[in-house]
Amino acid sequence: MHAQFPLPDLARALLPHAFDSRDSRDSAHDEAHLLRVWRNAQKIMAQEGGDTRILLAATLLHDCVHVDKGAPERSLASRMAAARASDLLGEMGWSAADTAQVAHAIEAHSFSAQIPPQSLEAKILQDADRLDALGYMGVARCLALSGARGAAICHATDPGALNRPLDEDAFALDHFQTKLLGFGKGMQTETGRTMAAARSADLRRFYDGLLAEIG
After folding, report:
1. How do the domains of the chain map onto residue ranges?
2. Dist CA 205 CA 123 (whole Å)
3. Structure confidence by residue, pLDDT tens digits, 50-68
4. Which CATH number fits domain 133-215: 3.40.1000.10, 1.10.3210.50, 3.10.310.30, 3.40.50.300?
5. Can you give the pTM of this predicted structure?
6. What is the pLDDT at residue 2?
7. Can you say how many angstroms the Cα of residue 23 is from the centroid of all Cα atoms in its chain?
8. CA–CA–CA angle 93, 55, 134 (5° rounding)
9. Which residues form a coiled coil (predicted)?
10. Contact of 2 with 15, CB cutoff 8 Å
11. pLDDT tens across 66-77, in order?
12. CA separation (Å) from 158 to 30, 154, 174?
C-alpha cells in the first residue's frame, strides 16, 4: 500500500497509525479512502502547489481517531486526530512548525468541526476529502454507510420528501438533500471547485434518475 504514495518511507511509517483500531474502519473510511483522497490532493496540487510532505502526512492521519457519527463528541474528532498526529510526528522528530501545519490541516478538514482552513495544504486536504463524498463514489459511500446503520434506501411513498421532514438516519436518499447535493459549494481551491462541479453533476444525475425510476 505504501508504494502507492510518494515518500514511501514516510507512508510506511504512518500507515500503521492511520486508524485507531480495526473496528474504526468502515467501507467509506479505510485504506482505499486514504488513497482516493491522496489522488484528489495530487490533482489539486498539480494546479495549486503545496508541500507534498505536509499534505501526505495530513492525508494519512486525518482519520486516525474515530468518533461515531451519533456521538456527542463527533465535532471534536478532527481535533482529537490532530492531537494524536502531533504526538506521533513529535516522536518521529518532526519540527514543531511542520507538526503544527499537519495538525491544522487535519483539524480543519472536518465538515462538523467548522474550522476554517488557513494554509494551502489545509485547503487542499479539505477539498480532497470532500471530493470523495461526491460523484459515483459518493453514491456508493452513502448507500454503504446507510445500509450498515440499518437505514432504508428511501421512504416507500415519499422518496423525495415532498410532504415529510427529511430523516437521513432512516433513509439514505434523504442524505442527498441534507448534505451531499450541496457539498460541492464550499470548496476552497479553484481546482477543487472544478472537480466538485463535475462530481456534483454525477450525484445529481443519480438522485434525479432514481427518483424518476421509482416514481
Report:
1. 1-116, 133-215
2. 27
3. 999 999 999 999 998 877 6
4. 1.10.3210.50
5. 0.91
6. 62
7. 18
8. 145
9. none
10. yes
11. 776 666 667 788
12. 33, 8, 11
